[in-house]
Design goal:
Structural class: mainly alpha
Largest sheet: 2 strands, parallel
Number of helices: 23
Helix content: over 70%
Number of strands: 2
Order of helices and strands: HHHHHHHHHHHHHHHHHHHHHHEHE
């Protein structure tokens, strides 16, 4: 790949992320955002956070972030800045991951892999725009990847202080959600299969201890009572397999992903860096890093709730899939070119890649809704909703549903029952009368 093509990739990758940032300024609180904000308004803030372990779950870091809601310290405007912070965190975290492992072309690798990730996420709103959903899952995955990159970087000259640094990183990452500690357990179990090293044993014990700590939180029992179909082993194993095949199949059907692989084959990387990825030349390890994270991300919620009603964990899986896919192609570049010589003769690969990068799934809906004004109309309707609630001085507030619904952004529909938690969350946050749903206003 020549310099001109690299510059073009940098430009388009930057533009795509910029448009996702712009869309973030049209986002609004959804689902339990108002509920957590209301909890965070209590005078005994730290005690409230600590009590979440006994009330709902044992996530020791993301619970703090959810209670420290931007709605409480900056209102709706602060909420709209959170996607910007998260997208920047994802980009720079991914950049650091590639820099540690390859030390070259890390900017373009980060830009394009992040752009493709946003394009294939099963639910882009839950992935980066819904504060309580996105910040519970995605940052932990980014930090986990950073830890793995440091492990690969210092693998051959591992010191005691590396233990301390990585232990701190993995403890932080696992504090966001239990999926990260599960991924850590599986990751280092696999490492032990390849090489019995003390550091792998130490990190396996660390992740196992964190997982047990989160799992044994008393709040998990309370939360579990809301899901009568939980803890069905055969169902969870079987459905996780189906969901994993579905998600990975959808991602691989994206022409941009295939063409990204072709472009990676045309890039040159230092041999000493690729040597560190020699473990990825094993079909077993390629399968493990491409399939198992997605399977775990599906199994976790299926086991604990009996369903996959939300795609927060699947979004996490899609984020992990792109860096692992990228490294797998780079590690096996010579083998692939030798076995599939026709790939090197592909014409117009670069142009076709840019085309599909821009129009596939989430990117298409994003660009379309920004151009036709649907996102802007949705934004205005949400502001109108807030104004109606604030202006209502009655015991009952009649609030219309949103008519301009977006595929890029969403807000959960109000319930017909004013005592439903969705309606109550608006009522408690705005300190209003009962929220009663009416038909959407049409012009």
């Amino acid at each position: 790949m020549n310099k001109k093509e690299t510059i073009i990739l940098l430009i388009f990758g930057t533009l795509i992320l910029a448009f996702y940032i712009i869309a973030g300024f049209f986002s609004h609180p959804a689902a339990d955002d108002f509920s957590y904000a209301t909890l965070g308004q209590k005078d005994d803030f730290f005690l409230t956070v600590l009590n979440e372990r006994y009330r709902w779950n044992g996530r020791y870091l993301s619970n703090f972030l959810l209670m420290f809601s931007p709605l409480n310290w900056g209102g709706i405007l602060a909420y709209k800045f959170m996607p910007l912070l998260l997208i920047c965190f994802i980009f720079f975290g991914t950049l650091y991951f590639f820099k540690n492992i390859l030390d070259e072309k890390h900017i373009v690798l980060s830009l394009i892999s992040t752009s493709i990730t946003f394009g294939i996420m099963p639910d882009i709103t839950e992935g980066i725009y819904w504060y309580s959903g996105a910040w519970t899952y995605i940052p932990g995955a980014v930090i986990f990847l950073i830890g793995l990159s440091l492990l690969i970087k210092f693998h051959e000259n591992f010191k005691f202080y590396h233990y301390l640094i990585l232990s701190f990183i993995f403890i932080i990452a696992s504090g966001f959600n239990e999926i990260i500690s599960l991924l850590g357990i599986v990751t280092f179990s696999i490492c032990l299969l390849k090489k019995r090293a003390p550091k792998f044993v130490a990190f396996l014990i660390l992740f196992f201890g964190i997982f047990i700590y989160i799992l044994l939180a008393p709040g998990n029992l309370i939360r579990g009572d809301f899901f009568p179909n939980k803890s069905q082993l055969f169902f969870s194993v079987y459905k996780s397999l189906l969901y994993s095949l579905r998600f990975i199949g959808e991602w691989l059907l994206n022409p941009a992903l295939f063409l990204w692989g072709v472009i990676l084959l045309k890039m040159n990387f230092k041999k000493n860096r690729i040597t560190k990825l020699s473990f990825l030349k094993s079909p077993f390890f390629i399968f493990m890093i491409l399939f198992i994270p997605t399977y775990i991300c599906c199994f976790g919620p299926l086991w604990s709730t009996g369903g996959l009603g939300q795609y927060r964990t699947a979004n996490l899986a899609s984020y992990l899939f792109l860096p692992f896919f990228t490294l797998s192609i780079i590690a096996n570049k010579d083998f692939i070119l030798q076995k599939l010589k026709f790939i090197s003769r592909f014409k117009h690969t670069f142009i076709i890649f840019i085309f599909f990068l821009l129009i596939w799934k989430n990117h298409f809906f994003l660009f379309t809704e920004l151009l036709n004004g649907r996102i802007s109309q949705y934004n205005q309707e949400m502001y109108n909703r807030y104004d109606r609630i604030k202006e209502c001085k009655e015991l009952e507030c009649y609030i219309p549903e949103i008519s301009n619904k977006s595929k890029t952004l969403f807000v959960h529909s109000l319930d017909n029952d004013p005592n439903h938690w969705l309606n109550k969350s608006y009522q408690l946050y705005f300190n209003s009368g009962q929220i009663i749903k009416t038909k959407p206003i049409t012009e």
